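Bug report (template v2)

What were you trying to do?
Predict the complex of my protein with zinc ion.

What happened?
Run completed; filing so the output is reviewed.

Input:
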Amino acid sequence: MIDFVCPRCAEPLSVPESQAGEPDTCPDCGHKLTVPLPDSFDSSVEEHAPVVPVTMTRPRAEPGQKKTGAENTLETMASLCVIFAVLSVIGGILFSLDARGPVWIIMGVASAIGLVMTAALLNAAAQALGYLRIIAAKP
Ligand SMILES: [Zn+2]
């Protein structure tokens, strides 16, 4: 069966597929119409269905959420600083165990603190860039 709508009175009509493309008369209002072909009817339905979610999701995803290259670089450098901070503490402990006195562990901890502070700074800079980007994206 072919389901379509009368162009004059919008009455839903159902016609056997053998009548596709043939003239017919609306039983409701008497309008003389042509029964649509099943293929053209299907494609017109499919055209409408996927368009709606695409236009709904696109504007949301575009301006707000994509990080810029600078932000990604800052965040990568921040996590590298944390890794080096851990390494310097481990290095300090290992050197101080090697009978060279506690000076190495102090140096390791001191450089770790410096690296963690650098990491925090880089993260703050990345966040600041993110806020700037959101502000700039607003009309
Ligand atoms: Zn009609």
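What did the reviewer find?
Residues 6, 8-9, 11, 26, 28-29, 31 surround zinc ion (CB under 6 Å). Strands lie at 2-5, 12-15, 23-25, 32-34.
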